[in-house]
Amino acid sequence: MYQSLRNHLKWRNLVFVACLLPIGCGEKEAAKPTPPPKKVEVVEARFMSFRPGFEVPAVIEAVETAQIFPLVASRILYQNIEPGKYFKQGEELVRLDPYPFETAVSTAEASIAEAMSNYEEARANFNRAQNLRPQGYISAKDFDTAKSDMQAAEAKLNTAQTSLNQARQDLSHTSIVAPFSGRVGHPNYAVGDFFILPNSVPITQLVKVDPVYVLAHIGQKAYNEFYAALERLKQQGRAVPNMELYIVLPGDTVYPFKGEFFSWDATAAATRGTVAARILFHNPEGRLLPQENVTLHGKLLEEVKRIVIPQKAVSQDQQGHYIYLLDKDNKVKRANIEVGMRIGPNWAVREGLKVGDRVLVEGLQKVSPGDAVEVTPVEIKQFLDPVPPNLRPPPHSLREQLRKEREAFQEYQRSTMEVRQRNQPGDVYTPYETGK
């Protein structure tokens, strides 16, 4: 009987435990609730018109900078240098004490007079010897002596002339003038200082302020893409589009003059992966200062049309750039794309997208390909970036201005050299002329 009671209790406990299970006591398993579709925001890819442009940091650079050094050693007699003062080409900056060089000129002129007298005497003796030699009145030795005396006197006259030219050139160097138009820096010497040669400290620095370069470093990839695009345009027989270049100064002030592209640098910067570009800017008031940091902007004059989507819709992995699209059943799928230029908060798409495609812009992190989603459509923000209205072109070609100024400077150098080579206003000296 005891064994029967124990078996009865065992079966009762088993039935009790089974009733506690979901399958026990006639209860069915509860179904899992279906999660609601994830909410996402979607834009519709479409064409957008815009003016392609760029924006890069840049720095102002002087077209010409000269360290002003005297070419002769002397005491500074007076100087016109005031920091920031503007000098035109040829205006005097510093005057050195000319007295030692005036003395040297006078001494050289006296040597010329003496050498000329000796030369005239030797030439007269040689002329007489030439007349007497055929008649046998002088010996061959005396004739050779007269000839050599004349040649020696001529050589001494030429040496004296060279010394006079050097003395006059040294005297001319006591007046130090501006080699080109520009502003001077702070003087490093005072009136009364004696300038010794050689010397590594210049009297001052002269900086050309109009025009100036704006130096910008462009990525080598962008540089190569630029020339590839130019080549494609040439092959298609299309004109190269014009671009407006302007700068924004610190404080977001737009400089009123447009720039004129000048040149690419001859070499690339390997460490930075860039190529330097220089753009000329008109600077009549000297407002742009060398080494000033600015932002260079460029915009095409003509609008272009491209398929555009917001930048936040684009992701990137080892395969490249990609986006999430929606199919007709509102399910997510991945699409690899090739992006182009950035347009404010948007990105132009070159390949992988067509007009009308629905692109996810919000909720990308919580979805995966194949997920069904709840769609909230949004609009692509039109990026408005107009060119500042106060821009105006320079009054003339800045490249042509530089060319004319350099030609004028070369002419100035030639005329200065001619003056230094003359004995006095007049023709260049020859040994057969009398006088100085």
Mind explaining what this structure looks like?
Helices cover 29% and strands 32% of the residues. With 436 residues, the chain is of the alpha+beta class. It has 4 domains: 1-31, no CATH class; 39-48 and 305-377, conserved putative lor/sdh protein from methanococcus maripaludis s2 fold; 53-63 and 208-302, Efflux pump adaptor protein, beta barrel domain (Elongation Factor Tu (Ef-tu), domain 3), CATH 2.40.30; 68-203, Helix Hairpins (Orthogonal Bundle). The strands form 6 sheets. Strands 14-13-17-3-12-16-15 form a 7-stranded antiparallel β-sheet. α2 runs antiparallel to α3 (140-172). The protein is elongated and about 140 Å long. The chain starts with a helix and ends in a 15-residue tail after the last helix.
For the largest beta sheet, what order do the strands appear in spatially? Answer: 14-13-17-3-12-16-15
Low confidence ranges: 14-27, 423-436
Global morphology: elongated
Tell me the strand percentage band. Answer: 25-35%
Structural class: alpha+beta
What's the SSE pattern?
A: HEEEEEEEHHEEEEEHEEEEEEEEEEEEEH
How large is the count of helical segments? 5
Output the keywords.
disordered C terminus; four-stranded antiparallel sheet; elongated; alpha+beta; 5 helices; conserved putative lor/sdh protein from methanococcus maripaludis s2 fold; single chain; Elongation Factor Tu (Ef-tu), domain 3; seven-stranded antiparallel sheet; about 425 residues; 25 strands
